[in-house]
Structure formats: C-alpha cells, structure tokens
Hints:
CATH topology of chain A: Cytochrome Bc1 Complex, Chain C
Largest sheet of chain B: 3 strands, mixed
Radius of gyration of chain A: 21 Å
Number of helices of chain B: 19
Structural class of chain A: mainly alpha
Oligomer: heterodimer
Distance between the termini of chain A: 57 Å
Shape of chain B: globular
Structural class of chain B: alpha+beta
Amino acid sequence: xxxxxxxxxxPPTIPAQQSRWRYTLGAGGIALFLALVLGFTGILEMxxxxxxxxxxxxxxxxxAFHVPFGxxxxxxxxxAAQLLVIFSAIHLIRVVFTGAYARSRRFNYLLGMVLxxxxxxxxxxxxxxxxxxxxxxxxxxxxxxxxxxxxxxxFLYMLAIGGDQACTTAMLRFYTWHIFGLSLVFIIIxxxxxxxxxxxxxxxxxxxxxxxxxxxxxxxxxxxxxVLAMLIVGAFLILLASFFPAPIAPAIxxxxxPAAETEAPWFFLWVQQMLKWGSPLLWGVGVPLLFLVLIxxxxxxxxxxxxxxxxxxxxxxxxxxxxxxxxxGTLIVILSLIFLLTRTKI
Amino acid sequence: MASxxxxxxxxxxxxxxxxxxxxxxxEGQRPTPIALTPTLTGKTEYCxxxxxxxxxISPSHPIKTFGCVICHGxxxxxxxxxxxxxxxRGGNNPSDLSVVEQSCGGEACHSGSxxxxxxxxxxxxxxxxxxxxxxxxSVLFTFGAQPDLTPRYATRTVEDENKTKTxxxxxxxxxxxNQSNPSIQKFAENCLNCHLWSxxxxxxxxxxxxxxxxxxxxxxxxxxxxxxxxSTPVFVHQLTTAIPYxxxxxxxxxxxxxxxxxxxxxxxxxxSDRLHNYYQPIAQFTRCEYTLDCIDCHTxxxxxxxxxxHPNQKEFQYVRCQTCHGTPTTLPLTKxxxxxxxxxxxxxxxxxxxxxxxxxxxxxxxxxxxxxNTRVLPDGTYELxxxxxxxxxxFKPVMGSGCTQNGQDQSSTxxxxxxxxxx
Lengths: 346, 423
C-alpha cells in the first residue's frame, strides 16, 4: 500500500516492546486526539458564542439548549478538556516513571511541561468564558492572585485582565487568550514537541546492546493502533457527553460577585484548599510555582536515567525523580480530597 | 498482528456507532421549545415550553406583553428546569418584599410616583402590614423594654423619605438579640409571622404567599376554606384585586396570641357558616360585616398604606359605619365623576364588577378615597357591588331613618348595640 500523508507523519518502524499500550499508556497520542477534538468542537462553538458579559452566558445557553446537537458539541468540548488534563498528567507521569526524559530529550520534556501549563490555562480561560455565577470565585481569586506577585504582578494582571476590574475587559481578554493567544502558542509548541520526539529518536528505548527484544512494528500498525485508541476514546467521550452535561449556572447579572463562593475548577481545588491557610502569595502562587519548577527541573537537577534502563517502567537510576513526582502528586490529591471532604456548601 | 488490530478497530467502530446512536437518541429526547417574545422586553424566552398550561396571571399583565421573565426572573433560554428556575426572584413568588422592587417595580409599574398613585411598593413597605410596628411597640412597652408607646421598631428597618405627617421618619429593625426578657424573646420567636415580609405559618388554614401575593394571589375560590381546613391549599397563577374575605382570613381570623406565654393559639372551632366564622365568640356583627368582603369597605390605603409610617392599626384604620351610612345629621360623602383620569375608573377597570361612567356619583371616604364600587341611586339610597362576588347590595343613609345615635360616636360597639345580629 502506498503510504498516505498520515503514514509519513510517523517513523517507518518503531520498537515493538516500547509501542505496547502498557508502556506508553497511549497517553501522548490520546492527548493529541483530545486536543484535535477540542479544536474542532471549539470552532463549532465559536459560531454561536458571544464574547461579551451580557450575551456570553445566554449564548452558552443557546448552544446548550437550542442549537441542534449544540449540547453534544459543548459537552464534548468540556469532557475533552477535562480528559486532556488527565491524559497530559498521565503522559507526564509515564515519562517520569520510565525515565524517558533522559539527556537529549530533556528540552522536549520542558516543551511538554509548557504544553501542560497551557492546557491548564486553556481550561481555566474556558471555564471563565461561561460567565455564569459559578465562575465568580475562580475568576476573582485567580486574577487577584496574579496581583500578589511582587514586581510583575500588576503588569501580569493588566496583561490578563486588561483593566482594573475583572469584568468587561477581562471577558474579551479571556476570549482572545483562549481562542487565539493560547492556541497559537499551543499549536507551535505542540508541533515542536512532536517534531522533537521524532528528532530525538522516537520512543525512548535502551541502546541496542541492552535491548532484550529487538523486533519492530511498522508505521501502518502504529497508525492502526492510533486509530483504535481514537475510536475507543471517541466513543467514550460521546457517551460521557451524552449522559453527563457540562456544568452551567445562571448568568452573571452585573459585576461578578465574589461573595457567591463556589469551587475552583477541579484541578485547582488543591490551591483553593491552601488559600484557606492565609498568604495568597505563598499558597496561591508560591507553592504551585515551586511544584512546577521542581517537576520541570527533574531532568536538570536529579540523576539521569541509566541508558541501559530506558524503555521500561520504574528504572532504579531515576528513583529520586519518581519519588519527587509521586510526592507532589500525592500532596495535590490529598489537598483536593481535604477540600472536598471539608467543604460546607454547594 | 495487523489483522488482530483491524478486528479491534472494527469492534471499536461498532462502539463508536452505538455511542453516536445514543447521542442521536438524546437529541430526540429534548423538549420542543415554545418561544415567546414579549413586546415589553423584546427578548425571547422559553418558559412556555413547560408552562404553557398556566393561566394568564391577570388581564393587566397579558403574557404577550409581559412574558414571564420580566416579573419572575430566571434563565429565559434554559430548557433545563433546574437551571431555568435557579435565578428566579423570590422562588415562586416574585412579589416577596425582598425582591419586589426588581420584580414589580419601575416607574411605569408599581414604584411610580405618589401623584399618580403608582407608588404601591413604597407604600406597602411602610405600611403596618409590613412593619408590624403596632404589635412590636405594644409588647416592648408592656414588658418594660421601652418607656412609652412611641414606635421605634419594625420587622425591617424602614424609612419614610417624604418625612411624614405622622412625625415618624424611620423605624429600626426589631431584634431580640439585646432583649433579656423571656417574653420578648418568645414574642420574637413565635409572633413575627403575621406581616408581609414573612412566610405563612405552616398549615392549610394559613396558606398565603409573602409580599403583594399575600393578598393578590388568593387561594383558588374552589379550594379549602375554614370548613375544609385540612385539605391542601392550591394557589392558582393569578393576580387579582378581587380579594375574597377568605384570603384576609389567612392572617386575620386564625386565632389569638396568648400574651402570657407568647404563643399563637390556633382556633379550634369548626364554623358551619360565615356568621360564625370568626374566632372571637363574644364579638358582635352587623349584617354587612359578614355578608360583604373585607375589601368592600376597607380601602386600598388602609390595606397598603399611604406612604407614611404609622404607629398602629387603630390610629390608621379609618373607614367606619358613617363612611357609607353617614350620621343622623349628615349624609355620607359623595363625589360625581367628571375626570376620565380619576383613579376610580382605573380601579373599576382592574376589577370590572361595575361599569363607571362620567357623571356617576359614588361615595368617598373622609380622606377622599373613592369607594368606586358604590353609587348613589336616583331615589337617594345607595348601591354597593361586592368586589369579589359581584353581588349588588342596597343600603340607606342613617339620616332620616329614625336612628337616634350620637353622630360623633362611631365606635363599633356603639352601632352594634342596635344593629348586631344574633349569633
């Protein structure tokens, strides 16, 4: 069969051992598929979404209740976004727990971290674009946190909000960031990230002398496996979207009211829990930033994976990195659980 | 390996087809929206998708003009019941006094100027039915919490922006937080249920809404009254000025407060007819007091206030026997309608039990309020048309009747000495 465009996006062959689901978990590919779903459903939503505070929540309701299959598109967009955070995290965990970031790949690891942060920012800005009463607390808290950063806080706040209050100007800024600013950077870095995977030799694998299994699969099989993953995830997404609607709440009338305390997006619940302890700069900015720096610095500060151990789970040589990521991950889960178990209302 | 993966792809494709079929089925499950674009707002709303069976709330609020959202709030585009109702003002009662300004207010609606008598909301909020200040003052004075009967407190802080003729410019919100007397604390606990800010006591006999709807959304006429007090009350989607006495009874004829232990004691009798349908066994009545509805005599200002803060009901309620019947030496006050903008025409239009014409002569109160449902007949007698029943009643003036009353004494006990009916 003559190779198609899609075949050419892949290397001619890849190691069979490292192309198994249980090694890659399919996380990177699934994340890419989810990003494509988000782009497609997002463009469809743009046909109806009105980026101004008066009309935004009504246009969301129009999509959810009046546009044929609008509810499905919106729910797909929502669930794809949530799954993207999850699969990006799984991808990160896989890379660290297999030590795949070693040496030449550590720059690509950083690109991956940038993509992960962009995914979080996408989720946050998308969450805000609903402009209903449930977004008030995250909007005002999130944007006010920026202000607490010494020296550059004011500038960053103006960059994100575009005015001295999180209302009209913020709406348009969030929209532009979500649709254009973040997307542009995301697409460039995503392509760069994928390019670097190819340039760095495909899936991380031990040098030939250390390989126990030298068989390889060709790109047709790889493509088939990718199609299989897309079909399974796609069906799962459609079922999720059909039975579990994306959150929606009454429109904000007037200015956002911080008194109507609601929950942050689920991936920021741990930050919301820490904010109960006081200093917004320390708990809301400092600690999350520290976690980000620590995780991003893994390939630079911690012992590298021994090449002989590449291509399998839990190499001994990068145990420190595994422990660090597990500790941070566990902390984030525990903090989120504490928040969920101690919340009083909602 | 390839065929194994391909068969998995075939299987997964089937899975996708099923998922798509589910999505298609869910699309078909969505309700067919019923749109309405009220002329007042020009904004399409979809409340009728579920509520098309509701009767129009009143001829003065036609749905094609008002729609639902302008009064009720809510999410006009939502087709999910939870979301659609989440931001409704006052739950199912947009006339609750906490939200009435947004729901019913506006210069062209019910918070207009006193001059054209569209200041309903301002008046109601300062009225005794909302402030409850007479009861609060009496209790505080009786139990030594204030030195005199000067009104100081109300159910909510209230101000009279027009600096009233009564000299009471403001009342503070009553709270028992600083009251040590257990009777006052009990009063706060048990006795602050009878005002327009409050929801009704539990039980079908007390059934009413708060705010404007407490009176203007009466129980369905076919629904339980006192004789059927255990059945479930049913309110209909209605605003009316034809308020039957049964609605007044939800507050005013339910029992007594026991001032010793500050508890409300519900009446326990089972009256068989309206004459006996009053909780004070010793009270006396004239015929008109149990054949007419309360609103046939008591005016809108008595019920809804005049914009001033008044100290208590006794000093404010002013319609008496002489208002309609006059005295041995004077006829009741009358007015011949000559101005088409006279408020009497508007009131008669809202509750068209009588057709008023220019040139008709009607009775008026001492304060000049038109008793628009009355008229002077050519033979010098009078006619009253029941506002809630439409029944015509004829009555005569005292003058020339042989009545020997002292015209200055208008206490009810005085007139009742001769005119009470036997119970």
